Amino acid sequence: MLENEIKRYRSLNRLAAADGIVIFGCAEDTDIPLGELKQAFALDDNIYNRSVESISITDASEVYDECISELCPETVILHIGDSDVKLFAEAPADFEACYVGLIEKIREKDKDRRIVIVSLKNSRDDKTLTDLNKRLRYIAESQRCDFEDISSPIARTPRKTREIVEFLHSTGFVHPLKNKRPIYDLVRILFCYGD
C-alpha cells in the first residue's frame, strides 16, 4: 500500500510547483478536500497533500525523501503521530528522536524552511494524547518550529475562520501588502473543516 502511495505522489510531483505548502499527515488527512477548501476560503497558495494513511514517525523521514523533498516546499505542515501513540507511551524518547530526525531531514536542503507541527485531536481528553501533544509542543519549541494546537474542540474554529474570511473579502480586504495567510488560519481550515 505504501509503495502505491509513494508512486502516486512521485507522479503528481511532476505537475507540482516548488515553494508551496505541503501537508504531511496521516489517517484522515489523506481525505482533506483541498479543492473545495481552496475554493471556499479563497486560498491561492500552492498546497499539496502528501499524507499517508498509516505513516509512523519511524518511517516518516524515508517517505519525506520519496514524496516531498523534490517539491522544495516553502512550508511543511506535520500532522504525524496518530499511528505512534503506542510507541510514545512505551518509549517517548524514541518517539522524540524520530520526530527530531524528521525535522532535521526536512531542513537538510533548506535550514530556513518553515515547519509547522500540528497537535493531534484529543476529544476524549486521553492522558496519553495530552502528554504526546505536550511533547510535540516541546519539540516545536526546541527545534524552532511553529506549533498549532487543535487538540480541543475549542481550538478548532473553522466556521469562525470562514466568517472572518468572508467579512474581509466583502470589504475588499484580501491580502494586505502581499502577506501570506497566517498559518493559524490555514491549519484550522485544513484540519478542522468538519468540526
Overview of the structural elements:
This protein has helices at residues 2-13, 34-40, 60-67, 85-90, 92-106, 127-142, 158-170, 183-191, and strands at residues 21-25, 47-49, 75-79, 114-118, 146-148. The protein is of the alpha/beta class. The longest helix has 16 residues, at 127-142. The chain is globular, with a radius of gyration of 16 Å.
Would you summarize the structure shown here?
The protein has 195 residues and is of the alpha/beta class.
Give the SSE map:
Layout: H1 2-13, E1 21-25, H2 34-40, E2 47-49, H3 60-67, E3 75-79, H4 85-90, H5 92-106, E4 114-118, H6 127-142, E5 146-148, H7 158-170, H8 183-191
Please give the largest β-sheet: 5 strands, parallel
Low-confidence stretches: 175-179
In total, the number of strands is: 5
The value of Rg in angstroms is 16 Å
* Secondary-structure class: alpha/beta
Number of contiguous helices: 8
Strand % is 5-15%
Descriptive keywords:
195 residues, alpha/beta, 5-stranded parallel beta sheet, 8 helices, globular
